[in-house]
Amino acid sequence: MSAALGMEKISVGVFVNAIMPDTTHGSSYVLEQCSAYGDPSMTSLVVRPKFISSTLYHLSSIEDDTLGTLMVRPGSVTIYRRPIEGGQVHRERAQIG
Known about the structure:
It is a single chain. By secondary structure, the protein is α+β, with helices and mostly antiparallel strands. Helix content is 29%, strand content 12%. It has one domain. It has four helices and two strands.
């Protein structure tokens, strides 16, 4: 919105779409909420180019979509479960990419 107010002064605009943490929940809150709809034994996650195009780059140009799809690299996500008896925390890792 602010870019539209002074277009004559702006030569480049960068827009970022990301999941931002809040002060109430932990860093894995979004993944914990998503896991409620899937198989509880899920240990991996695959992000395919079609998902990337339709969700992450759906408002971008074709060039940006292609570049973003090509730049996907394997990474890991840690989901921390709530503590159980004895204070232990269960941890699962998921691959993205």
